[in-house]
Please model this.
Amino acid sequence: MGKTLYDKIWDNHLIRTEPDGTSLIYIDRQLIHEVTSPQAFEGLRLAGRKPWRSKANLAVADHNVPTKNRDLGITDPVSRLQVATLEKNCAEFDIPVFSMDDARQGIVHVVGPEIGFTQPGTTMVCGDSHTSTHGALGALAFGVGTSEVEHVLATQCLWMKKAKNMLVSVEGQVGEGVTAKDIVLAIIGKIGTAGGTGYTIEFAGSAIRALSVEGRMTVCNMAIEAGARSGLVAVDDTTLQYLHGRPLTPKGELWEQAIENWRQLHSDTDAQFDRVVELDASQIKPQVTWGTSPEMVVPVDGTVPDPAQEKDPVKRKSLERALEYMALRPGMPIQSIQLDKVFIGSCTNSRIEDLRAAAAVIKGRKIASTIKLAMVVPGSGQVKQQAEAEGLDRIFVEAGFEWRDPGCSMCLAMNADRLEPGERCASTSNRNFEGRQGFGGRTHLVSPAMAVAAAISGHFVDVRNF
Amino acid sequence: MQPFERITSQVIPLDRANVDTDAIIPKQFLKSIRRTGFGPFLFDEWRYFDRGEPDMDCSNRQVNPDFVLNKPEFKDGQILLTRENFGCGSSREHAPWALSDYGIRVIIAPSFADIFYNNCFKNGLLPVVLSAEEIDTLFEEVGPGYQLTVDLKNQTITKPDGTQYHFEIDSSRKERLIEGLDDIALTLKFADEIRRFEDRYRQRMPWLFSEPASL
Model:
C-alpha cells in the first residue's frame, strides 16, 4: 500500500516506538519566540542542560513588539522584559536570533519560510499553534507547549503518537475575488473547529495546486482552526521555485541533492486516507465569520444564522452566546454589519501577496469616515521593504490606513494594538474568540481584499462586485 | 512534577463547548516569564467584570457572581467537567499552568484539542475523555456536594452512587503521570540511539546540517 505525504515524513524521522504506539520523533528545526520560551530556557538552566543542537533553532520576537515608534523601544515594562529575556537566553545558549531592530525581524511563521529556514520534508516545531503554516512547503510542522520547546532544545526529539491521515481536496477553479483565506474558512465551516482533531490534514486538489506558496501558507496556517496540528501541501514546481535562492536553502550540489529528495514529497497515488473531504472550488464565495469560533462562518451574501433552527442543545447555546457577545441578531444580512476597525496582518495574511491584493482593491479610494482605525502590519521586515519598493505603503496611507512595523500586533493584542470593549473589527487574522483582539472586542475574519472593501464601505461588502 | 494517583473532589461544571485557551488564560498574562501565579487569572474574562492585568491584586476586583468559579459551593473543586473540544486554539502552556495553579487536577470532557491535551500531561493535569452520553449524565447529576473519585491506576471514575465509568489513556502517559517523571531525563536515556539516528540522517540529508554562512 502506498504512503501519504505524512506517512513518509513520519517514517523518515522515526527513532523508536514503544508498545503503546508512542514514538520518539527526530525534530529538524525549531522556531522560538519570546512568549512561550522563557520557562523552557529556565528549565534548561535549572537542570544544567545545553541545547542538543543550537543551530537547529532560530529565534525572533514577534508577539510583544510595538508596531510603531519602534526607535523608542518597548514602553510596557513587562513586554520589554520578555523580549530582553529572549535575547539574553539566545546569547547564553548560542541560538541564532533576529533582534527587534534587525531588518529580518517579523512574525516567526513569515520569517521562517522567507529566509529558507523552513524546508520540505522536515519536522518543525514552535511554541505556537500556527506553526502548521510551514506545511505549505511540505514540512511536518506543528505547535507545541513550553515543556516541549524545552524538550526539543534538550534532546532534538519529541514523544508523539502518530495522527490519522485526512485528505481535504479542493477541485476546480475559484472565482475572481475568492482567495486562499476564503478556501480555508469554507473548509473550517464544513468540517468544524474539531473536524481535524487527531488528524494531519493534507490539502490537495487543483485549487490548492493553483495557489502560490504564500496562499498555501494561509490555508495551512488555519489547519489548527480546523483542529489539526499540522496541515501539508505536496511539493511541486511552485514549491521549488519559491525555495530556490533563499538565504538558508541549499546551494550548488546540495541543492540538486535536496530537490531530488523533495520531489518524492507527495502522497502516493494508492495511499489510503482515514478521512476524505471534498470541496468544489467554484462554489466557494468570499467568507465572513459572524461568531466567536472560526466555524461560525457564512458567505458574504449570507445572513447571521438563527439558533432556533439548531436542534443540538449544546450547539444552540453556543450560537446564542456568540450572538450575544457579537451583538448581532439572527437573520441580519452580513453586509449590514458596520465596523469600527480594520486589521490587515498576522501569520495568516501579512505576506507580500496579501498586501498586493489589498492594495489593488483600495487604490485611489478612501476608508469610510466611520472607521476609527485601519492598519496594515506587514509580516516581516522583508515584506515591509518589498511593499515599500512597490509603493504599496503609499497606496495604503493615501487611503487612510496606518502603515506599521512587523509583528503579531492586533491578531492577539499582546502589544498596544487592540480593540476596546464593544469595538467591531474586520480582521485578516485567524481567531475570532471572545476577547482575542482585546477585552470585549468583536472580530470578523475575512481575506485581505474583503477587509479593504469593508474599510472603504464602513460595512461588509462583496468584493466581487466592488 | 506532582505525581498523580487518586483524587476525590467536588466537580465544577463548566457547561460550554469549544472553550479556547484565550478564554482559559487571556493574552496579557502570557507576558510573564514564570510558570506560576496564573491561578487568580484563570478564565479571567468570565470570572471578573473588569479587565485583568498581570500582577494585579484580584481581591478588589468586580467578580461575576454567576460564573461557576465564583460560587462558594464549587470554587474549591479539583475536577472540571466541561464540553467538547476543550482547550482549542493557541498552544500556550499557560492554560494548563493556570488550571493547575488554581488547583484543578482533572478535566473531564467528551473531547480535547490535541495540543492542550498533550500539554496537560507535562503538568500533572489529567484530561479524561468520556462519551457524550456519560458527560450529559454527569451534567444532569452535578450540583453542590457532588463528588467524583478519579483513579488513574485503574482508569475509573466513581460516582457518588458507586457506579463507575472507565476511561482510556496511553500507558506511557499514564506511567509518567503516576510517577511524576521528568520527560527530558527519560528521553536522554536514549541519547545514544538519537545520536546514531542523527548520524544516519545526516548522511541522507546533508543539506539540513550545513551551517548557514551568515545568519
Observations:
- The mean pLDDT of chain B is 95.
- The domain at 6-179 of chain B is CATH 3.20.19.10 (Aconitase; domain 4).
- Residues 114 and 130 of chain B are 16 Å apart (CA to CA).
